[in-house]
Write a structure and sequence with these properties.
Layout (H helix, E strand, L loop, with lengths): L3 E3 L2 E4 L7 H15 L12 H18 L4 H30 L5 H6 L4 E5 L2 E3 L3 E4 L6 E4 L8 E7 L9 E2 L7 E4 L7 E10 L2 E2 L6 E4 L2
Antiparallel strand pairs: 1-4, 2-3, 5-6, 6-9, 7-8, 7-10, 10-11, 10-12
Length: 210
């Protein structure tokens, strides 16, 4: 069985070793893109907090331009705090993006941040495996956020449509099917049920029951 992959979005926020003025500009750009952005309904930390920290850093920098060592040290403190908050915000954006496998990349980029790329992660595919109990198999099918219920079917003669035995609709995408005949080859398929109704049956896969 082939293995498919989905993207794991890794958000990049390149603030390290940047001049304070550049950091302020980058933060301002992110704030503008995330404000009223429907993809980010509950930013953490709140954008208002980051905006205040940005203003505090900007004002502290203006005072410290020709100021004392203490004033210049205050800039470093304000800068460190702003970077910390932006790192937390980056994690929020990354988590939000990865919650939507289909649109994650677009969602992450809409924040004004950049992407490092992706790390392949196995995506669950339809499988049927024997269990330690004779005559019993475990069926697992993929699921999406739109899926409400699932149903499995099995048959020893898949060319005869009426020979398929159906399970009851299930909330879980995993199901134990028992009462099968040891040594026989069975063909299994599954379908999903959403608010729009029942989907088409999948292609069958075969398993020899032990």
């Amino acid at each position: 069985m082939s293995t498919t992959y989905i993207k794991i979005i890794t958000v990049a926020l390149k603030l390290r070793c940047k001049p304070v003025a550049v950091v302020l500009s980058m933060v301002d750009s992110v704030l503008k893109k995330m404000e009223n952005n429907p993809n980010f309904t509950n930013p953490e930390p709140p954008l208002s907090v980051i905006n205040q920290e940005r203003e505090d850093l900007k004002n502290t920098l203006a005072i410290a331009t020709d100021g004392t060592k203490a004033q210049k040290a205050a800039v470093k403190v304000k800068l460190r705090q702003l970077k910390l908050s932006m790192t937390t915000l980056k994690s929020y954006v990354q988590t939000t993006a990865n919650a939507d496998a289909e649109n994650g990349e677009r969602i992450a980029l809409s924040s004004g941040m950049s992407l490092k790329g992706f790390t392949p992660r196995p995506k669950r595919t339809f499988s049927v495996t024997n269990t330690p109990q004779s005559g019993t198999v475990k069926a697992i099918c993929p699921r999406t956020k739109k899926d409400i219920m699932f149903q499995f079917q099995y048959s020893r003669t898949p060319e005869i449509e009426s020979s398929f035995v159906s399970t009851d609709p299930l909330m879980a995408a995993t199901h134990i099917i028992s009462g099968l005949i040891k040594g026989q080859t069975y063909f299994f398929r599954w379908a999903t049920i959403t608010t729009k109704g029942k989907g088409k049956w999948s292609d069958t896969i075969k398993t020899v029951v032990i």
